[in-house]
Amino acid sequence: MPELPEVETLCRQLRQVVVGTRILRGLILDERLGKMEGLEGKRVLAVIRRGKVFQFQLEGGLSLFFQLRMTGRFHWQEGGDIPPRARFLLSFPHGSLFLTDVRRLATLRCSRGEDGFPRGCEPLDGLDHRRIFEIARQRRLPVKNFLMDQKVIAGIGNIYASEILFRSRISPLRRSSSLTLHEWKKIVRVTREILDRAVRCRGTSISDWKDLFGRKGEYQKHLRVYGRAGKACRRCGAAVRRGVMSGRGTFYCPVCQK
DNA sequence: CCCTATGTTCCCAA
DNA sequence: CTTGGGAACATAGG
Question: Structure pTM?
Answer without folding.
Answer: 0.95
